[in-house]
Amino acid sequence: MSDDEIRLVYSGYSIAHTGRDAFGNFLPLVFKMDGASTYGQVPIYLSGIFFLFLKLNTFTARLPFALSGILSVVTLYFILKKILNNDKIALLASFSLSVSVWSLQMTRFAIEIDVAVLMYLVGILLFLYAKKRTSVFLLSMIFFFLGFYTYAAVKIILIPILIILTWYNFKLLTKKHFFIILATIVVAFGSFWFLSVAKGGTSYSAVNGSFFFFQDKATTSQAVELERRASQEPNLIKTLYHNKFTYWLRVASTSYLTTFSPQYLFLNQEANGIYSIWGRGELYLFELPLCLLGAFYLFLKKRKEFLLILGLLLISPLPSALGIGNPTWTSRAGFTLFWLCTFVGAGIYYLVTIFKKRNYRYLIFAVIAIFYLYAVVGYLSQYYFDWSRTNAKYFSKSTQDLVCKINVYQAQNKAVVVSGATVNTFMHYAFYNQLDPKLVQENINKIPIKFANITFYDGCLAQIPTDVTYISSANCKYKQKPTSQIKEYDSPEIVWDIYEK
């Protein structure tokens, strides 16, 4: 379980059993963890519902998100069936989504984008099926509102989605519908503004509260200053071409266009490696011509529907483009996948139906099926045999090993002191040991964290205590050699040093 997953699901578990988050806040509207207030409220409370009935473990923690992935496949089918009036394209697109590397990777973990895209997809589905039924239309807006508060990144595409859907269904909308849409936008962004002002709801991974959207001001100023120093242009030219606006525009354009680059989509995935599988794209390479063929087919046969899908596709990378940080995060661009799979499904349908003879159709379909079988088996084998080993460090495997080691010492009635630990370390300990949330709430805000026969220090101790088993971060340097060590999984990198009593 990664740090982000632990924070999210344990907060849900704590709320389910005490009505308070891990830090003791009663039914909070903003979750402040690890310097950020941008954690999605909906997935945390959704997790809490599951923990009312199921035990705290990895399976239950990730179950709501896996189910979101499954339901997204079903929802996409009904969306496409409605707008394209073609069951076969809808089925083929949904199949493409169900075996997509992108989808399978993301929905195996407890991350907010899984639930966020489902909420938006259900909102789109209800919007399209509502016609003049106000109750269904209101339900659509409720799902959009829930999606808005599921993941910080997707907030920015709410208005573009509603504009595109309004254009597509314009003739079926009444003044009441327009009022409901406007009211939804006002309530969503108005409440977000209030939470931002009153609760710091826009801060992201920084004590100083840098915003999730757009680049950090300090980083931007430094980058612009370095550009101007490196340039020998006249001052007027420097000011015109090296400023915050041109810097932000360049960074946003790079992140946006990277989402559509063949290298990102079909060859190497995102650069940071958290969810990436070596040598494999977000989509399978053979789907590239199918995607282009499908877009061409829909452009020829269903022009308005093509423009609807294209519009949704083009706005999907906006969270990645405008979010803080440079890489194109797979999670932020998660809404993109559904419309790419739509083109892939249409491409398969078009390729098969080009041939009039049934035998040729069967042959083409069989060839595509073999390609998928080969690609999916290759992905799964790589996932289970390689990725789970090489990427274990991104999912805090060494912290889990630390918890297991602590449990061994505690079973032997040995007092344990851990230095160089963080609140995240304590939350991992709480998760794997299924600690009572009340115990966590009582101790998590204390420095150091002490309970039973274990103590967590956030910094390094001046010297090694001799009366306890001492575990320190590898960043803490001592003259004495440790009796044992915890290393990154399948790596020589040392993470924890152990000094046994």
Structure description:
The chain folds into 2 domains: 3-390, no CATH class; 396-499. It has a 6-stranded mixed β-sheet with strand order 2-3-1-4-6-5, covered by helices on one side. It is mainly alpha-helical. It contains 21 helices and 6 strands. α2 (41-51) packs across α3. It is globular, with a radius of gyration of 25 Å. Helix content is 60%, strand content 5%. The model has no long low-confidence stretch (mean pLDDT 89). The two termini are 30 Å apart.
Count of distinct strands: 6
Number of helices: 21
Radius of gyration, Cα only, in angstroms?
Answer: 25 Å
Coarse morphology:
globular
Mean pLDDT: 89
Uncertain residue segments: none
Strand content: under 5%
Instruction: Give the helix level as a range of percent.
Output: 55-70%
The largest sheet has its strands arranged as 2-3-1-4-6-5
- The figure for the number of domains is 2
Briefly note the structural class of the backbone. Answer: mainly alpha
Question: Biggest sheet, open or closed, and with what strands and sense?
Answer: 6 strands, mixed
